[in-house]
Amino acid sequence: MAISAYTSDKIKILGLILTVFVVFHHAHNLQFATSEIHAGVRYTESFFHYGLRGFAVPFFFIASAYFLCARSGFLRAYPGEVRKRVSSLLVPFVVWSAGWLLVMMALQSVPALGGSFGRETISFADPVGIVRLLTLDPIPHPLWYMRDLFLLAILSPLIVALLSTRTGAVAYVAGSLALWYSVPSIQQREVQDLFFFGVGAWLAIHQPKIPAVPLGAKLFLLAGSLGLIGYHCWWVENKQVETQFLLNTGVLLGLPALWLLYDDVAEYLHTPRTVRASEYALFIYMAHEPTLSLVRKAMIMVTGGGSAALAVVWIASGTLIIAGAVATAWLLRTYAGPVYGVLTGGRVPTRAARPEASSPSPNQAPALVPA
C-alpha cells in the first residue's frame, strides 16, 4: 500500500528519536558508581533505562508488521516477502553477529586485554557456545529484534489468519498481551514480540479509520504515559525490581500519543536536516552495541565512578557513538556502497528530503510504514 511522503518521513523521524532513546538506554552506567550518585543524575539515566527504552522495539514491530501485511494478495506475495527478508533481516543479523564474534575472539587472544572483553571466553573448541552467540545470544545484542522479526515474518500467514476473524483476533490479542505482561521485558525481551507484531498486522488487515483526536486528549495520553514511566523509575529505585504493569501500560499510552502528537510539532521536526539524519537511524541501531559498552568502560577507567563523572560519560559516550555511527555510515555509503548494503540489508536511501510535504487531513488514517 502506497503512503504519502509525509507519513514515510514521519516514520523515519520517529524511528530516529526512538533509536536515540535506545542508545542512551544502553549508555546507562550507574552500576559503576563508586560514590553517592546525585538524585538528578540517577533519575535522568533511569528515565531512559527503565522507561523511554520501552517505546522503540514495539514501534519497530508495529511498523514492520504493517509493511509486511498491508498488501492485497498477501498469501501470493508471501514467498517473495520471505525471500526479501532473508537479505534485509537474516543476512545482516548473521554478518553483524559473526563479525563481532570474531572481533571479540581477536581481542581476547591478546594477553593484556583478554580479561576485559566479553562476558565469557569465546573459542571454536566450544561449538555449542559459538552457535549460541551467533543465534540466541548475539554479541551485538540489540539485533535480537531482527532475528525475531524474521521468525515472525515466516509465521505471518498463521498470524494473519488468526487476526482476520473476530474470535481469532480476540484470542491472539488476549494471549499475546498476557504473555507481555507476564514478565518484565528487561528480563525476557522477546515477550513483547507477538503482541506488537500483531498490532501492526491487525492495522494492515482491517485499515481502521483514525478519527480526529483533540490536542487535549493527546496530551492526556502523553501525561499518563510519562507519569507511569516516572513512577516505574521510582519503583525500581526503591524496590530494586521492575514491574511490568507500570512500564507496559506507560508504553501502551505513549505510543499512540507520540504518533498523534507528531503532527502537532511536525513544523519543527520535519526539516531537511532531520529527514537526512533519519536515514542513518538503522545503522546507528545496528552498530551501537557492543561498541558503546567498550567506549563507556574505557571512559570510566579514566574518569572514575563519581556522580559528575558518570553523568559526563553517559552523555559523552552516547553522543560519541551516534556521531561515530553516522560518520561510518556516510563513509560506507559513499565509498563502499555494496558493503553498506549488506550490513543494512540493502536499505540505501533512494530519495531526497521532502520537508514541504503537507500534513495529512485530520480525518485521514495515517499509514505506519514507508512503501
Tell me the total number of β-strands. Answer: 0
Q: Tell me the series of helices and strands, N- to C-terminal.
A: HHHHHHHHHHHHHHH
Mean pLDDT: 88
The fraction of residues in strands falls at under 5%
Tally of separate domains: 1
Gross morphology: globular
**Percentage of residues in helical conformation:** 55-70%
Structural class: mainly alpha
> The biggest beta sheet, please?
none
Distance between the termini: 7 Å
Radius of gyration: 21 Å
Unreliable stretches covering 5 or more consecutive residues: 351-371
How many separate helices? Answer: 15
How would you characterize this protein structure?
- The protein has helices at 5-26, 39-49, 56-69, 74-108, 127-134, 144-163, 166-180, 193-206, 215-239, 244-269, 272-278, 281-287, 291-303, 307-335, 337-343.
- It is mainly α and 371 residues long.
- The chain has 15 helices and no strands.
- The chain has one domain.
- The protein is globular and about 60 Å long.
Write the layout of secondary structure elements.
Layout lengths: L4 H22 L12 H11 L6 H14 L4 H35 L18 H8 L9 H20 L2 H15 L12 H14 L8 H25 L4 H26 L2 H7 L2 H7 L3 H13 L3 H29 L1 H7 L28
Main traits of this protein?
0% strand; 15 helices; 68% helix; globular; 371 residues; disordered C terminus; mainly alpha; single chain
Briefly, what is this?
The chain contains 15 helices and no strands.
